[in-house]
């Protein structure tokens, strides 16, 4: 296990919810075996059912690679990933994924882009049209169902991508820096919407980001990663109450969490303080 | 509206340039009086055409039909081969080796062989048109099928998409713009192929008209066939271009014209 700052707290919450994703001594190397590039080394982490966990770290720390291993898109070189007790061989069932780029298909309307996940999963297009429309409505895209992706702004496109990931009601949602390409205001908007969605419960979310504030605002726990080699340096428990309005970011508690993580970053030599 | 205006404007200026060149040509012939066997005046070419328009149009019709048949087959077969190439490493090696070999061989040199095999009807012309056109289709469609956003494929895999549905719902639509690039090249090559076929053997088509007119030193007649070929080639190109506008309104290169927003 990675060193924990609040082992007591973790043990307490761990007892209340079963493990959703278990990562055990995971390593991922690239390149020639003789001279490997080590993206991840000896990563162990347990994500519990229903929790929102962020993987936070600077670029190149392997956080996206770790997420891709959990998604079954990338194979670990050593160690194992288990989702609900089952070792992975390919993407597990019941997951949804949101990427940094929305990867909407230009030749499909927004509605059809959302429906593609149902089509791929063989759940039928017609059966899901109602649900897709309802999702678009909830994410403020009700009037844009018949538009093409290139007619929408970046934030709207990413909302549509989230709808696509949610269409088949995944109980594990993987998000790879989904708001990294958006402007600060749109990012705030989407943070609030995502926070509201999490509030409804029933969903485990693993969220990759390089923004400390974003991670603290959204998460139940934040796993801070360091680079060369990529590993989990420490896991922070974020005990801020929910629902969390944006203004929670001005509270001293919020500041304390951000401060703790930032000081870890500087101790790890990942940021300079001057 | 603005767009339509701009396009009519473009068409008008193209026409003006063409008319200007024709006037210059006519004036030069009138001034220097070259023998018509070297260079006939545009007016002479027009009167020659108007003497027997039905004959010329019938020959043009034959060339058009062999061109379109060869082109159509090259698209169908080319897309099928491209799908095969991207779906298996073995097919990739075999198909690409054969195609590159065939493409490096001057197909004009193969034309007589096809006449021996298939006779002097439409078949060898269609085959040569097909062979000239297909390489552009396969090369471009393979590129289009392969250059898919890796994240789009990851999205499909996370949703447990079957290889067939990935092909139909992501790879193929993604390759359509490349297919049209290939088709624009291929349609001109198909016309070249059809003419080459008519040169080598046969008794119909504009290539045949040129060959027989050459035998009689009937230069104006050669020019009539050339002008018709030029018009035909241009129209074929714009036909594919129009098809692209109709079928791919979503593509970046078309958005200005789509006028959706």
Automatic annotation (TrEMBL), chain A:
Keyword list, A-Z: ATP-binding, Nucleotide-binding, Transport
Domain ABC transporter: 21-252
Single Gene Ontology MF annotation: ATP binding
Database matches in InterPro entries: AAA+_ATPase, ABC_transporter-like_ATP-bd, ABC_transporter-like_CS, ABC_transporter_ATP-bind, P-loop_NTPase
Record family assignment: Belongs to the ABC transporter superfamily.
Protein name per its UniProtKB record: ABC transporter ATP-binding protein
Lineage: Bacteria, Pseudomonadati, Pseudomonadota, Alphaproteobacteria, Acetobacterales
UniProtKB/TrEMBL annotation, chain B:
Keyword Transport: yes
Transmembrane regions listed in the UniProt entry: 12-32, 62-86, 98-120, 126-145, 189-210, 222-240
The keyword Ubl conjugation is assigned to this record: no
Chain ranges of the ABC transmembrane type-1 domain: 60-244
Bilayer topology: Multi-pass membrane protein
Main location per the UniProt record: membrane
InterPro entries membership: MetI-like, MetI-like_sf
Compartmental location: Cell membrane
Key words, A-Z: Cell membrane, Membrane, Transmembrane, Transmembrane helix, Transport
Annotated Gene3D superfamilies: MetI-like (1.10.3720.10)
Pfam families, alphabetized: BPD_transp_1
Family: Belongs to the binding-protein-dependent transport system permease family.
Name of the protein this chain belongs to: ABC transporter permease
Biological source species: Belnapia mucosa
């Amino acid at each position: 296990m990675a060193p924990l700052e609040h082992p007591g707290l973790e043990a307490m919450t761990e007892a209340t919810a079963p493990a959703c994703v278990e990562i055990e001594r995971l390593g991922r190397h690239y390149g020639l075996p003789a001279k490997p590039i080590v993206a991840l080394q000896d990563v162990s982490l347990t994500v519990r059912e229903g929790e929102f966990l962020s993987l936070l770290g600077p670029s190149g720390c392997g956080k996206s690679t770790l997420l891709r291993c959990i998604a079954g898109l990338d194979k670990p070189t050593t160690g194992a990933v288990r989702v609900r007790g089952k070792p992975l061989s390919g993407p597990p069932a019941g997951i949804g994924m949101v990427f940094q780029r929305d990867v909407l298909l230009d030749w499909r309307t927004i509605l059809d882009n959302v429906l593609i996940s149902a089509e791929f999963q063989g759940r039928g297009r017609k059966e899901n049209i109602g649900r897709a429309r309802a999702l678009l409505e909830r994410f403020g895209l009700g009037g844009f169902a018949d538009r093409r992706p290139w007619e929408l702004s970046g934030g709207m496109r990413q909302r549509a991508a989230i709808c696509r990931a949610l269409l088949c009601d995944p109980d594990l949602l993987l998000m790879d820096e989904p708001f990294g390409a958006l402007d600060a205001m749109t990012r705030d908007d989407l943070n609030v919407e995502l926070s509201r969605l999490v509030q409804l419960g029933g969903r485990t979310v693993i969220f990759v980001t390089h923004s400390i504030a974003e991670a603290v605002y959204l998460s139940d726990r934040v796993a801070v990663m360091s680079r060369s080699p990529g590993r989990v340096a420490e896991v922070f428990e974020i005990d801020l109450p929910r629902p969390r309005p944006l203004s929670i970011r001005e509270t001293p508690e919020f500041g304390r969490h951000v401060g703790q993580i930032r000081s870890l970053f500087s101790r790890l030599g990942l940021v300079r303080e001057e | 509206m603005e767009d339509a205006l701009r396009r009519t404007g473009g068409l008008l200026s193209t026409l003006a340039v063409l008319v200007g060149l024709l006037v210059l040509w006519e004036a030069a012939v009138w001034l220097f009086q070259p023998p018509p066997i070297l260079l006939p005046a545009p007016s002479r070419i027009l009167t020659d055409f108007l003497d027997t328009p039905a004959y010329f149009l019938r020959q043009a019709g034959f060339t058009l039909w062999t061109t379109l048949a060869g082109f159509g087959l090259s698209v169908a077969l080319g897309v099928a081969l491209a799908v095969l190439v991207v779906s298996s490493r073995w097919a990739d090696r075999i198909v690409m080796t054969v195609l590159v070999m065939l493409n490096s061989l001057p197909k004009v040199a193969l034309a007589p062989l096809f006449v021996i095999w298939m006779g002097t009807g439409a078949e060898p012309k269609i085959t040569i048109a097909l062979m000239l056109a297909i390489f552009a289709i396969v090369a471009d469609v393979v590129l289009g099928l392969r250059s898919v956003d890796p994240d789009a494929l990851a999205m499909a895999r996370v949703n447990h998409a079957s290889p067939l549905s990935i092909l139909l719902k992501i790879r193929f639509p993604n390759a359509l713009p490349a297919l049209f690039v290939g088709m624009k090249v291929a349609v001109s090559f198909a016309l070249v192929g059809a003419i080459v076929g008519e040169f080598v053997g046969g008794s119909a088509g504009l290539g045949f008209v040129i060959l027989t007119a050459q035998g009689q030193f009937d230069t104006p007649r050669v020019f009539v066939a050339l002008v018709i070929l030029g018009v035909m080639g241009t129209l074929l190109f714009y036909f594919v271009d129009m098809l692209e506008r109709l079928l791919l309104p979503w593509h970046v290169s078309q958005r200005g014209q789509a006028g959706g927003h």
